[in-house]
Structure formats: structure tokens, C-alpha cells
Amino acid sequence: MRQDKEKSNSAFVWTVVIGSLLIVAMLAANTIWLSKRTSAATEEAVSEVSAFYLEAMADNNARSITNLISNSFDEMEKAVSFIADEQVESQEELREKIGKVQSLLELNRFALVDEENVVYTQYTTYTGGSRHPFLSDGPLNERIISTVSLYGSVKLLCLAMPTPGLTIMGKPFKACLVQFDISEIINVLAFDDQGRTHFALYSRNGGNLSGTKLGTVILDRNILDAIRDIVPEDVWKENCRNFEESREGNLSFALGDTQETLYYVPIQGTDWQLAVLIRESVIQHQIRHISERNLEASSNLTVFTLVSTLIFAAVLLYQVRRHSRARLEAEKETSRSFRNMANTDSMTGVRNKHAYTENAQAIDRQIASGELQELAVVVCDINGLKYVNDTQGHEAGDQLIKDACALICEQFRHGAVYRIGGDEFAVLLQGRGYNTMHETVAEMNRRVEENVHKNDVVVAIGYAVLGPEDRQLRDVFERADQMMYERKKELKAMGAQVSRF
User: Fold this and answer.
1) Once rounded to an integer, what is the mean pLDDT over residues 482-499?
2) Taken in order 409, 412, 415, 418, is the CA torsion positive or negative?
């Protein structure tokens, strides 16, 4: 009996030991298998989430360009209606009206075309048939969206629409048009991205319309020529067909140890493609970091922790897929209205102090990193606002602010205008605005001095450029502000009313 009991106990012990070893072995094998499977699943999830993010970004920015085109046509109709009601009798009056609608409606290079294909702009006239082929095809019966090559390398987006019944100076006008610098449109889309994502616009044959660089391989070349040597032949042919037939598409390619993903979508109403390229995006880095940390921890966990991890990973992936689309859709719907409310001055329609502060923070980071080389700040102050408010009332003061803003926007059309105080404005100049700053400032001061004698809008301005000693935007602003105060003294000596002295 005792021997039987001892044998039974021994068998129980061996059963427990062997069973425990088997459980440990199974857990170890399951952990290794699960780690490998989790790694593969994480890489797949990274690819799916990144591709979805890239696709959503491309669709959103393509829609932004489409909205720009649609809104521009709406503003063109307003401009034509305004000029038609003004009873213009001479070319000088016509140019003045064109300049006014450009400033008020923010229509770049707005022009009118008569029946003889003569194009009337704010400053000159020219024969439009050679530059705009659609003008030489007879009457213009529909809206036209085309590109124009200017001075060899600069490409412009040209929008044209018929103007039936429009008569000015006793002659019929058949069309109006506006033109936008395509590279500036792309730079606006990429501004908030801090250089992590690359944007470019392409024609149906793959030609670079925007002149912007798409990563370090494609650069500013023809995109179809650039990818021919880095993707398989069948992939290259498929992308060629997509461009030719205005279909969206994507491709990935390796650059050393770095994987780059490219997505492109057609722009509605044109034969263009907007391409977006991401290199090792933030999403990829973050998800891989979380994955590596979880895998390292999972090797030391019990079966319950393994199960919990699996459940957590499944829930996390489900939540990411479920909420990513909803969040991106919500951002599309709210971003435009939010920016308008948060960043636009309700009286003048230009950007407000909140927008200036946000932009200043981004510029400070670029200065600190050495990325920003060319920047100028123009500080503007309205003379006589307090005097007008005290003598004519605040309604007249508000009108003075609007008129002053229109003058600033007209002169600094290539800069970003902000209203940062009751009678204060700031203009940030980069690119073309920076290169033409001295001519623009001289013209602005000339206009203001004429207005002093005409008792019209007077604005004192000062400017400064970014120097190697500057550590933040505020340093440049203060120098410009000091110059502005000196200018106010000069204007005061000329007889202008002032609001601060």
C-alpha cells in the first residue's frame, strides 16, 4: 500500500514537473512565434496606416487646389460685375479698377480681353493670342484652365472665363483671366508640414509644372523619366497609363536603407496630377518604436500578459483603423472654418495677430535650425486713426482701417499681411516679395507722401531684413518698428495727422 502511494506521489510529481516544463516550453515557443507574427503584422499595419495617411493628404490638398480654382472663378464673376457697373471711360480708369479688384478680391494678375484679343492688365496691355492659345480660337464659350510658361522657367496657372455682354469704353470684351504662380500654390500646401512631406504638380506627360523638388531622387525632373530606373518595367508602364488617363496611383521604392512612398491624385477640372512623397514618416517611426518596446516586454510576460497584449494590439489596431478616417474627415471639414475664425481679422479680411504669432513660432524654429536665410519684416502704422475716431466717429475710423489695409495689400501683394493691432499691420516678405522689397517700399512711401497732401490714407512703414545676429523674428520686428517710428516723425513734419504722438 505504502509503495503504491509512493509510486502515485512520484508519478504526480513527475506529471507536475513534466507538465510544467511542457507549459513553459509551449509558452516559450508561443512567445517566439507570436513575436515573429507580431513583427510582420506591425510592418503591415505601418504600411497600411502610412498609405492611408498619404492618400488622405493627397486627396485633401488636391481638393484645396480644386477649391482655389472654383473660388477664383467666383471672384472673377464679382470682379467683372464690379467693373461693368463702374462706367469706365478710359484705359487709365480701367487699369485703376483692375488694380482695385486685384487688391480687394485677391485675384493675382487679373486681366480683361477684348474682341481683338488685346489683354488689359493693371499696368499694361498686350496681344494675348501668342501667350494664351485659347484666345485665338475665336469666341470663348466656356471656362478654361491652362498653364502658361513665363520667362522660360516660371509656370503660371491661368483661369479664363467668357464675359458675354461686357462693354467697356464703347468696345465689347469677350473674356477675363487670372494667373497664379504654380510653385507658390505648392509652397502654401507644404508650409505647415515642416519639410517632412514633398509636394509637386505634374502634367499628363509627367512634366514638372510647379518647379518644386519631389524628394532627393525625382527632384524637379519629369516624374515618369525619374522613376523609370528605380521601379520594375510593368510598374513604370502602369504609372504612365495612370498619368495619361488622369487616374490616381501610388508606388514605393527604396533609397539605400530608406523606404519612400509616393501617391498622386488628379486635380478635378484639369489634366494635372498632384504628387505627395513621404520618407520614413512620423507614423512609421512611432508605431515601430511601440512595437519594439512591446516585443521586448512580451518575452518576460506570462501567458495572461501575452493574451492581454494580443487583445490590446487588436483593439489598438481596430481603433486606429476606425478613428483615423473619422479624424481625417473631421479635419477636412473643420480646418478651413477653424483657420478662418482663428486666423482672420473680421474687419479687414487679412490674417490676424493669432495667425502672426503661430507663423512667428514656426519661423523662430527655422531661424534656430539655420533653414531660413531670406526674410524681411515690414511694420505699418495708420496715421490719424485716433483723430478720425474722435472727430468723425468710430465708423469713419473703421473705414480708415479698411482703406489703409487695402493700400498695404495692394503694394505688398507678394507678402503675407497681418493686422496685429488696432492701427498696426505687419508684412512678412519671402521669395519674390523679399527680392522686390526695396522697390515696393519706395513705391509705398511715394504713395503715402502723395496722400499726405491729398488728405487721404497715410501709413507709416519701417522694414528690416533677417541678419546673422538675429535669433528670432522679434529681433527683426523691433528694428523695423524703430524705423517705422522715425518715419512717423517725418510724416508728422509733412503735416500728416498721427495717432500716437
Assistant:
1) 84
2) negative
